[in-house]
């Protein structure tokens, strides 16, 4: 608001609209009060003899937060003829206007202060600065401050705390610096606290240390609020040692030693810096010291139980919450729900939710979010639908959780419903919801929709770019992913470990070892080589690029390994047929107390299949079910069918498919069909082929496989029938494609293609090799040229 506008507002009547009735009318006159809507020239009415008592009422109402009542008393005083020139409580009255956070009425009282010459009163102007900050009008607050003829320490403190509350942390720190260094004024407790909190929010460690020095110099180190602020600042800046020094200095001070807030800040700081054992030790020390934990203490304790995955400790703290009478505290209920979900006891979390469920959005958000993050995405969707039926529209956090469930389940139809709901509720403008939609469509294979959502985002942050790049990567759109990666950096967005993990997976898909090394070098330069996510991706990438030794080296050099790390190295070794070394790592995995999951057993069974280790594969399958209580999925049955089929146990493989609790797909039948061809079992092959073609009638690959089997058996007529079906249905096989990287140059070859510049030399070498293997006694099998008009189709 400009100064000219303020001056013009003073020449017209000031309207105070929508002022409510006084909450206790009898406290003024004993009669119900009317609603005052206008403020006329007070000099035209006689002075109110009861002015003093009314002024005291304004002060009392303001101190008790009855802001409407305070304003109503002031309007009545004016109507009764009170002379504004004699009014000494404008700072108090302005505070009442600020409490309403009403910009229009705030400007009216500003105009009234200006009209009657009270802008020379530093206390009134300080109140105006605070008023505009509370209304969110930062520009107006700055203009009022800039035009002050006189400023005191309260003026500066109001600016420091106002900028902090408006989340303008840098300006808050700038005001602190100007106040101390250029004007020689000393901030009060509120100013120091706001500056420290600004340092914590911006992780400005150096500024925080300067403020710490100022606090010590001015003898404020015994102030419990500043001690808490210093600890929080150091913890958020990652300087745990300095935070410990501040905390330890309070132990010898009786006034600070028993302050629960200081202990809470310290425990929470340990948790946020992943010093979980120290957090636990301090919590126990607090109890031994005789301090009674409050709700904040118990929430922090439950958080480190969640991160430690310590269910027994979590249950003990649960009992402590009941003893302390906090069972109905929504923050503690939410922390308990999360703790039980993280510690793999979702039913206990659901029990707490059902007991506390009363329409509270926080509780609903916690249960839906934890279900989506865990292994219960279907339950998250079910709970979300229940919430919609009972309470109506959700908030953005619930939408994020349910979109995550749709992504993990690849439920595009449900995701589209959530998309429509986000548009209807206006949550589509939320950057996080938009990024979650990009991720959902990408995981559902609809990259066109993902691109459309991404292009409409008003602001594209790292999360949004990662969602797009990972979507391209998962859908094997390599060129698009690399182009997006370059575009992201052109827009000034720096990649993080998630971005690099996606890029590394693209290198693996291309089997481009040089690109993989470039990504690896980037990781080292950024200092991410110890990051578990990136290391896991590099293990898989180097294995797919043919360098299994480098995969093992990365694994051995990892300081921290999770379940994915072990599964990745086992899969890499299995891929390279190094079964013996794979078994060694599997034993080490168990010794490290890492429980193998479905992915681990898929890798083990696949390796056993390719190595012909039938007995070993059967033992792994049995161990998976009986020892680890894992329900086999289609991919595990496919590995077992392939294992048995390769070894010639065709009937056993067929029986296994028929006994599957889940529906077999075309791949598992196709695997058995390939084994039938290898072992010449025509009868079973025809039965299996019927199953395959019922599931996928357009599959030319399986029909060619059947034709090859029939040709091996000399069934010329049946081969002709297969050829007729292929031609009649218009099926055409996608040409085979392969590539190789030589001296950082990738050479691509398509079946039947002669476009390579050295194709004559290449085909000459192929012909020479064919003659050599024939001399060795092997008869190479050439494609069935009669099945298709173009030999390149095979």
Automatic annotation (TrEMBL):
Top-level taxonomic group: Eukaryota
Residue windows of the PPR repeats: 121-155, 259-293, 461-495, 562-596, 597-627
InterPro entries, alphabetized: E_motif, PPR_At4g14850-like_plant, PPR_rpt, TPR-like_helical_dom_sf
The organism of origin for this protein: Hibiscus syriacus
Keywords, comma-separated and alphabetical: Repeat
Name of the protein: Pentatricopeptide repeat-containing protein
Molecular function, one GO term: mRNA binding
Cell membrane listed as a keyword: no
Segments of this protein annotated with the region Disordered: 25-50
Family listed: Belongs to the PPR family. PCMP-E subfamily.
The keyword Metal-binding is assigned to this record: no
Transmembrane segments: none
Any GO BP annotation: RNA modification
């Amino acid at each position: 608001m400009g100064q000219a506008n303020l001056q013009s507002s003073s020449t017209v009547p000031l309207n105070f609209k929508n002022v409510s009735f006084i909450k206790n009318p009898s406290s003024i006159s004993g009669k119900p009060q009317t609603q005052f809507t206008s403020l006329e020239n007070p000099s035209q009415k006689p002075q109110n003899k009861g002015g003093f008592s009314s002024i005291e009422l304004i002060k009392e109402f303001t101190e008790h937060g009855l802001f409407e009542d305070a304003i109503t008393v002031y309007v009545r005083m004016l109507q009764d003829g009170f002379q504004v020139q004699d009014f000494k409580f404008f700072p108090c009255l302005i505070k009442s206007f600020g409490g309403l956070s009403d910009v229009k009425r705030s400007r009216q009282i500003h105009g009234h202060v200006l009209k009657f010459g009270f802008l020379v009163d530093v206390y009134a102007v300080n109140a105006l600065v605070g008023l505009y900050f509370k209304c969110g009008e930062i520009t107006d607050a700055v203009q009022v401050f800039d035009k002050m003829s006189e400023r005191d320490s309260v003026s500066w403190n109001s600016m420091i705390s106002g900028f902090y509350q408006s989340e303008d942390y840098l300006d808050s720190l700038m005001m602190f610096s100007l106040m101390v260094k250029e004007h020689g004024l000393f901030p009060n407790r509120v100013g120091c606290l706001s500056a420290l909190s600004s340092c914590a929010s911006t992780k400005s460690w150096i500024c925080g240390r300067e403020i710490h020095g100022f606090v010590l110099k001015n003898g404020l180190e015994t102030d419990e609020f500043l001690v808490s602020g210093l600890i929080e600042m150091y913890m958020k800046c990652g300087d745990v040692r300095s935070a410990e020094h501040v905390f330890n200095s309070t132990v010898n001070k009786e006034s600070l030693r028993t302050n629960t807030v200081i202990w809470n800040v310290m425990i929470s700081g340990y948790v946020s810096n992943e010093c979980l054992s120290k957090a636990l030790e301090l919590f126990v020390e607090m109890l031994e010291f005789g301090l009674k934990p409050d709700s904040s203490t118990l929430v922090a304790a439950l958080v480190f139980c969640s991160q430690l995955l310590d269910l027994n400790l979590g249950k003990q703290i649960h009992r402590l919450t009941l003893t302390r009478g906090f069972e109905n505290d929504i923050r503690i209920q939410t922390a308990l729900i999360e703790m039980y979900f993280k510690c793999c006891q979702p039913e206990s979390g659901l029990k707490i939710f059902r007991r506390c469920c009363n329409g509270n959005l926080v509780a609903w958000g916690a249960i839906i979010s934890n279900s989506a993050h865990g292994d219960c995405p279907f339950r998250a969707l079910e709970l979300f639908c229940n919430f919609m039926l009972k309470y109506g529209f959700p908030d953005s956090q619930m939408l994020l959780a349910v979109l995550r469930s749709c992504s993990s389940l690849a439920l595009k139809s449900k995701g589209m419903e959530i998309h429509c709901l986000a548009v209807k509720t206006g949550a589509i403008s939320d950057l996080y919801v938009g990024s979650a939609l990009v991720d959902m469509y990408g995981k559902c294979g609809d990259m066109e929709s993902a691109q459309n959502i991404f292009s409409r985002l008003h602001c594209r942050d790292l999360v949004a770019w990662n969602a797009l790049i990972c979507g391209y990567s998962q859908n094997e759109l390599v060129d698009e992913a690399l182009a997006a990666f370059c575009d992201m950096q052109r827009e000034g967005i720096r990649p993080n470990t998630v971005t690099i993990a996606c890029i590394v997976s693209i290198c693996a898909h291309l089997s481009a070892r040089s690109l993989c090394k470039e990504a690896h070098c980037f990781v080292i330069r950024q200092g991410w080589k110890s990051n578990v996510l990136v290391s896991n991706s590099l293990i898989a990438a180097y294995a797919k690029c043919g360098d299994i030794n480098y995969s093992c080296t990365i694994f051995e050099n990892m300081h921290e390994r999770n379940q994915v790390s072990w599964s990745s190295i086992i899969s890499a070794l299995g891929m390279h047929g190094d079964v013996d070394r794979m078994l060694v790592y599997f034993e080490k995995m168990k010794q490290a107390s890492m429980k193998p999951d479905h992915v681990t057993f898929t890798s083990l069974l696949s390796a056993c299949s390719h190595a012909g280790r039938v007995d070993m594969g059967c033992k792994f399958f049995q161990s998976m079910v009986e020892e680890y209580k894992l329900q086999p999925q289609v991919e595990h049955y496919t590995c077992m069918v392939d294992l048995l089929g390769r070894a010639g146990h065709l009937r056993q493989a067929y029986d296994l498919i028929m006994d599957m609790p889940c529906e077999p797909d075309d791949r598992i039948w196709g695997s058995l069909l390939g084994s039938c061809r290898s072992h010449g079992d025509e009868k079973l092959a025809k039965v299996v082929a019927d199953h395959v073609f019922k599931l996928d009638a357009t599959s030319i690959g399986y029909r060619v496989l059947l034709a090859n089997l029939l040709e091996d058996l000399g069934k010329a007529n049946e081969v002709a029938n297969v050829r007729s079906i292929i031609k009649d249905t218009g099926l055409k096989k996608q040409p085979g494609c392969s590539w190789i990287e030589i001296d950082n140059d990738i050479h691509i070859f398509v079946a039947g293609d002669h476009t390579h510049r050295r194709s004559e030399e290449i085909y000459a070498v192929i012909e020479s090799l064919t003659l050599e293997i024939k001399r060795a006694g092997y008869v190479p099998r050439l494609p069935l040229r009669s099945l298709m008009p173009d030999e390149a189709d095979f």
